[in-house]
Each structure stands twice: as C-alpha cells, then as structure tokens.
C-alpha cells in the first residue's frame, strides 16, 4: 500500500513539473527555459527537480509523450462508430487553430491545440507517434477493406498529408472552409489511383 501511495505521489509530482515546464516552454521556448526557471516556478530547489528528472531534455521528452497521449485520448473520447468521421475528427483537431470560426477570426493557438507540436517532432523513430498512428490505422481498416494494404503505413501517410497541409497554410494563407473535406478527398483519390 505504501509503495502505491509513493508511486501516485511521484506521478502527481511529475504532472506538476510537466505543467509548469509546458507553460515556460510555451512562453519563452525550450532553449530559453532553464532548470532554475522551472524550479523557481514550482517553488522547489534545483536538486529536488533533479530527483524527478535527470535533465531538462528528459523532462522535455516526457512533455512530448504527455502531449501525444493527451491528443490521442481526446480523439478516443470523441470517436464514434463512423471511421470516416473519426478521420475528420483527427483533421479537425489538427487544423483547428487555423480554421476560421463563425466570426471569421482565427482561433488562438495554445498547448492543447497546437498543430505544429506533432509536426515539429523531427524524429526517425515513430514510437512517440505510435498511439496516434494506431488510432488512424484502426479507422483505415474499417474504411478500406483490403488485406494487401499496410494500414499502419497508410496512417503515417495520412498524418504526413495533414502536416503538409498545415505547413502549406503557414507559408501562404488560404481559405480553410473545406480544409478537412479537401484533405480527405485528396488522400482517398490518391489511394484509389495507386
């Protein structure tokens, strides 16, 4: 029992550290955030910080994984039995910051809806994104019934198209009214032609 309580306390402490560091990373950037800044914002010593995280990079890795898990959890919570709607849900959550609201104003970008968070993960290792790819893979298995396809690969390609759409928008703003349907149409037209 004491071990479980200790583990829960350690997890709560990690969550608090992650929240505080996420705010600092958002405000001043990863490079400009120091361990001293994080410790100060939590009202702890630097030594106490290092008892939980060995380095700032280690904390940032945990932060990235936390953001990914939260994103996939939000998708899972909002999912329906309609796989095409679930793909559109993914795109909506990805494109949300630059899809104009009813008043024609752009949505503010925050930690919870930053489309570049996953796009900027420059990694050759898909492990951090594995949960997201598996979510998308599940949708494609329902939509395209073909045992010869590698659905995981299709999921990766779909996410990369969404990344490209996001990057394209940032280079040159365009009307995003049909961004979700345009992405789905472009992707599925490409799949059926290959």
Detailed description of the structure:
The protein has nine helices and no strands. It is mainly α and 194 residues long. It folds into two domains: 2-53, Arc Repressor Mutant, subunit A (Orthogonal Bundle), CATH 1.10.10; 64-193. α1 crosses α2 and α5 (83-95) packs antiparallel against α7 (130-143). The radius of gyration is 19 Å and the shape is globular.
Brief write-up:
This protein is mostly helical.
Write the SSE topology.
Layout lengths: L1 H27 L6 H8 L3 H7 L3 H23 L4 H13 L20 H4 L10 H14 L7 H21 L7 H15 L1
- The counted number of beta strands is 0
Question: How many structural domains can be distinguished in the coordinates?
Answer: 2
- Binned, the helix content reads 55-70%
Number of helices: 9
Query: Termini separation (Å)?
Result: 57 Å
The percent range for strand residues is under 5%
Structural class: mainly alpha
Uncertain spans: 122-126
For the sheet with most strands, the description reads: none
Overall pLDDT score: 81
Topology order in helix (H) and strand (E) letters: HHHHHHHHH
Task: Round the Cα radius of gyration to an integer and report it.
Answer: 19 Å
Query: So what's the overall shape?
Result: globular
């Amino acid at each position: 029992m004491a071990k479980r309580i200790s583990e829960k306390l350690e997890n709560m402490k990690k969550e608090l550290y992650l929240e505080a560091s996420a705010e600092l990373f958002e405000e001043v950037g990863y490079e400009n955030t120091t361990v001293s800044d994080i410790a100060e914002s939590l009202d702890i010593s630097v030594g106490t910080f290092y008892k939980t995280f060995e380095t700032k990079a280690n904390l940032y890795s945990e932060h990235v994984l936390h953001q990914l898990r939260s994103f996939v959890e939000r998708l899972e919570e909002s999912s329906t039995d309609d796989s095409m709607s679930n793909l559109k849900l993914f795109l909506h959550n990805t494109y949300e910051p630059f899809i104009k609201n009813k008043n024609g104003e752009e949505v503010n970008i925050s930690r919870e809806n930053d489309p570049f968070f996953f796009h900027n993960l420059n990694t050759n290792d898909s492990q951090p994104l594995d949960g997201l790819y598996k979510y998308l893979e599940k949708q494609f298995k329902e939509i395209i019934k073909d045992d010869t396809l590698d659905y995981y690969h299709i999921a990766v390609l779909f996410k990369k198209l969404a990344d490209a759409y996001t990057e394209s928008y940032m280079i040159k703003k365009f009307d995003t009214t049909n961004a979700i349907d345009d992405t789905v149409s472009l992707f599925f037209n490409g799949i059926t032609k290959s």
